[in-house]
Amino acid sequence: MNRFTEAAAEIAHQGWTVMSDFLPPETIAALRGEAQQLWLQDEFRKAGTGRLGGYAIRPDIRSDHIHWLDDQSPTEAQSLYRATIEELRQEMNRQLFLSLSTYEAHFAVYPAGAFYQKHLDRFNNSDERTISCSFYLNENWREEYGGQLRLYLPNSYVDVLPTAGTCVLFRSDTFFHEVLPATETRFSLTGWFRRRSLRLV
Ligand code: OGA
Ligand code: MN
User: Fold this and answer.
1) Which atom of ligand 1 is nearest to the CA of 186?
2) Is 110 in the pocket of ligand 1 (CB under 6 A)?
3) For residue 53, is it within any domain?
4) Which of 71, 86, 141, 189 is most buried, most CB within 10 Å of its CB?
């Protein structure tokens, strides 16, 4: 039993969950500081869509900017994030029988007005991305700023505010979702639990 037992159980039975206080406030603040500094230093690039030959920059589909985490030289806050993700991975493997093996993550910045239209995270030409994980870094985010993650369920949807400490997890191959435009700059750390590919690409 650990603090991820309930979250993994919810993913097992409904495919998604929302957690709060995923990391301690000082770690969230450190990660937000890193993202803000990288953003000011122009260390982000325009996010694309698709993979390999299908990759394209499509500002009509998404207008965020991303910075991939470098696993070789993590900061202290990134190490704690990775350790927490690792605990969650083990708990999901126990409960979901998924063989999640690796994790990839990037910081994302949505400047005011940026969005990401309704999409699935599973690429057409790869079946590795299995569980999506969006973790939010914005302190004192208000409802009127917008920037919600809209997660589409079979007959409805849920809107999640990108408030610091909130972590949303969902099955990458099942759940369409979108990022609504905001009036403030929106910072997040988004990643994917992957399994080994079951087919040749
Ligand atoms: C993505 C994505 C959601 C979010 O990067 O694929 O859907 O809330 N992000 O940041
Ligand atoms: Mn997505």
Assistant:
1) 10
2) no
3) no
4) 189
Q: Which residue has the tokens 């079951």?
A: 198
Nearest atom, ligand 1, residue 162 CA: 8
Residue 66 exposure: Cα atoms within 13 Å on the Cβ side? 17
Backbone dihedral region for residue 3 (phi beyond 0: left; psi -120 to 50: alpha; all else: beta): alpha
User: Residue 72 — φ and ψ, nearest 5°?
Assistant: -75, -30
Instruction: Indicate if ligand 1 lies below 6 Å from the C-beta of 148.
Output: no
Residue 134: give the domain boundaries: 3-48+58-195
Whether pTM > 0.85 for this model: the answer is: yes
- Give domain status of residue 200, yes or no: no
Cα 90 to middle of ligand 1, angstroms: 23
> Count of domains in the chain?
1
| CATH code at position 9 | 2.60.120.620
Using one digit for the tens of pLDDT, what is the confidence trace for 62-114? 999 999 999 899 999 999 999 999 999 999 999 998 899 999 999 999 999 99
What SS3 state is found at 148? coil
Cα gap 75→82, rounded to integer Å: 10
Of 71, 72, 127, 74, nearest in space to 98 by CA: 127
Q: Is 131 helix (H, G, I), strand (E, B) or coil?
A: strand
Tell me, using a 6 A CB cutoff, whether residue 114 lines ligand 1.
Answer: no
